[in-house]
Amino acid sequence: MTRPIGYFVHHQGRGHAERCAAIAHALPATRPLTIFCARDDIFPPLPEQVEVVRIPSLFEPTGAEAATADWVPTPETLHCAPLGWPGIREAMATMTHWFATADPALMICDVSAEVAQLARICSVPHVKVLQHGDRGDAGHRAAYAGAAGLLAPFHMDLAQPEWDAAMLARTCFAGGLGVDTRVPERELARQRIGVGAGEEVVLVMAGGGGSGFGQAPMGVGARSRPAARWITIGPVERDWHATEPANIEHRGWVDNPADYVAAADLVVSSTGNTTCQQVLAAARPWLAIPEWRYFDEQHRKAAALVAAGVACVRPHLPSSADAWSQAIDAALATHAPVRQRAMIAEAPAGDAARWLEGLVGRLWPQAAAPADADAILPIPSI
Length: 382
Known about the structure:
The protein is α/β, with parallel strands linked by helices. Helix content is 35%, strand content 15%. The chain has helices spanning 15-26, 86-102, 113-121, 138-145, 165-169, 186-193, 215-224, 257-263, 273-282, 297-308, 321-333, 337-341, 348-363; strands spanning 5-9, 33-37, 50-54, 106-110, 126-129, 149-152, 171-173, 201-205, 213-214, 229-233, 236-237, 248-250, 266-269, 286-288, 312-313. A 7-stranded parallel beta sheet has the order 3-2-1-4-5-6-7, sandwiched between helices. α1 (15-26) crosses α13 (348-363), α3 packs across α4 and α6 (186-193) crosses α8. The longest helix is centred in the N-terminal third of the chain and has 17 residues, at 86-102. It is globular. The two termini are 34 Å apart.
């Protein structure tokens, strides 16, 4: 029997689940995959050999937690490890029981420093998904140092400068992983979203990991460019003092964000990984605005985008009409579509799957490779 692969998926946002699904479809059909996640309703359709095991959230209290042990300090190697949480014990017990009974070939962690270290303590090789951010703390260092390899769902040119050669050598970069990189034709996309061929469209989009952009600054932006049609997708943070002109509309969550991106003359977005990959694939003029995230993840991603020359970045939404005009002019003037498209791999899920199977073969050379391993797309040279 082929040894299974395990996969822990953080349930905040959508990117973790989407790249997990992409990898699941790219792995050989003979390779069982067990996913552990606090939600089982966030995944796209999965192959038959995939099982989703729902576990309690490691980050959200349920009301049964002890509140008297907070005085015990948290070790530097841990991020979120409160004492007295039954849900955490149940989640960890579910995974360790699977470790003991399934004899897995590998555990993929996307993302939790605690789960990565749990796998290592339980003598299970793990792959840590690599994200941007200030992650030089002891917890991240332990998770990375103990990993069999690191998986980065973005292009190598977006690596942070402090990632040294040894770290990069252990990393599989897969730009576009988890995103449908087939870009709709612009006019067809405009027809699908109900936009005229000659209209100027400014798209404002935010991902599922936060509360979205504020309504008031977007209203200022729409007033600064009255001839354009402003459309927002994703969450919007309501402001009681917002005064919106008639040229902005909020469409909320949509099932076809790729159509909106392809139809846009300018994209204003946060810098979550999935959002970034969608904009890069479509190669649109881009004003990138990082949102608050743990470890300054989006701010470090924004800095990487600037260094690679693929986005115009501002630290927050412009706060006046003049600031909006300057930011939009800069985004249009610095647009580099060829460079943007180069950030997306031809077959990122196939690249990642081939790399994972290679790791399994190196870890367990005595085991036979899956029968259809040759069907995985080859990794292009970097």
